[in-house]
Amino acid sequence: MSLTSTASAPASRQTDPATIAAAVTGTCPDGLLRAVRAEVRRGLGWQDTADRVAAALRASLPDPAAILPASLRRGDPAGYQSHLLCAEPDGSFSISAMVWMPGQQTAIHDHVAWCVTGVLRGREYEEIFALADGGRALRLAARNVNPAGAVSGFAPPGDIHRVRNTGDSVAISMHVYGADISRLGSSIRREYVLPVRADGLTAPPRQQANVTA
Ligand SMILES: [Fe+2]
Questions:
Q1: What was the pLDDT predicted at 209?
Q2: Alpha-carbon distance 138 to 73, whole Å?
Q3: Three-class SS string for 181-213?
Q4: How far, in Å, CA of 111 to CA of 39, rounded?
Q5: 3 HSE (CA, 13 A, CB side)
Q6: Closest CA to 78 of 2, 192, 129, 136
Q7: What residues are paired with 86 via a beta bridge?
Q8: 207, 165, 177: which is closest to 36 by C-alpha?
Q9: CA of 64 to the centre of ligand 1 (A)
Q10: In angstroms, what is the span from residue 110 Cα to ligand 1's centroid?
């Protein structure tokens, strides 16, 4: 594992965000960085900002080889990896790339600020949860299959989710956060170790659009 990247443990054991010192290990394309900066500086609300940053990312999704060296694009059997690409000096946003080997997943979690994700390679499966039973349990509320090219933006509250690489090859995604993860160590607000009710959503996963197809 690189000393300057974040390793996230498989299943429910997640690295303590407070212990992570993140430094830049990849490259954020200049054009994308300028586009994200322009949208953030509008000073809009979180959801509007996420929507506009999602449009900017959708318009210029980079090739994984342009943002990470080959050694970091392979993944790590120890758990999915988060590599910091840039952190805006004023702390208003930061951008990372995540690399997932097949079967690797996050804990169920939510975020401290708005977030935009774009899948660059492979396929990611996302489950979205709602609190149930007065906060003592979770219920599955939605699920999406996000292929390469899919971009989505969201803002708390209501962003409790879990992401897994359900494909048979390495998945790589790009993440823009409305927070400085180089200082926070992570954008995760809380991990939810709660039972998931069995009476949740039964509809099949929604297939997100692949804009690069
Ligand atoms: Fe997340």
A1: 66
A2: 33
A3: HHHHCCCEEEECCCCECCCCCCCCCEECCCCCC
A4: 20
A5: 0
A6: 2
A7: 95
A8: 177
A9: 20
A10: 6
- In the reported structure, the alpha carbon of residue 106 is separated from the centroid of ligand 1 by a whole-number distance in angstroms of 8
pLDDT of residue 206: 79
> Backbone phi, then psi, for 73, in 5-degree steps?
-90, -5
Question: What is the whole-number distance in angstroms between the Cα of residue 69 and the centre of ligand 1?
Answer: 23
The CA 155 to ligand 1 mean position distance, Å, reads 11
Which of 182, 190, 197 lies closest to 85, judged by CA? 182
Going from the Cα of 188 to the center of ligand 1, the distance in angstroms, rounded, reads: 7
How far, in Å, is the centroid of ligand 1 from the Cα of 107? 9
Strand-strand pairing, 171-177 and 115-121: antiparallel
Encoded tokens for 82: 């988060």
What are the pLDDT tens digits along the chain (213 aa)?
332 345 444 333 334 333 344 688 899 999 999 999 999 999 999 999 999 999 999 999 999 999 999 999 999 999 999 999 999 999 999 999 999 999 999 999 999 999 999 999 999 999 999 999 999 999 999 999 999 999 999 999 989 999 999 999 999 999 999 999 988 888 899 999 999 998 877 777 777 765 443
| Distance separating the N- and C-terminal Cα atoms of the chain | 33
Whether the upstream peptide bond of residue 157 has omega within 30° of 0, thus cis, is yes
Q: Distance, CA 199 to ligand 1 centroid (Å)?
A: 23
Tell me the CA distances in angstroms from 73 to 25, 96, 122, 211, one per residue in order: 12, 13, 12, 22
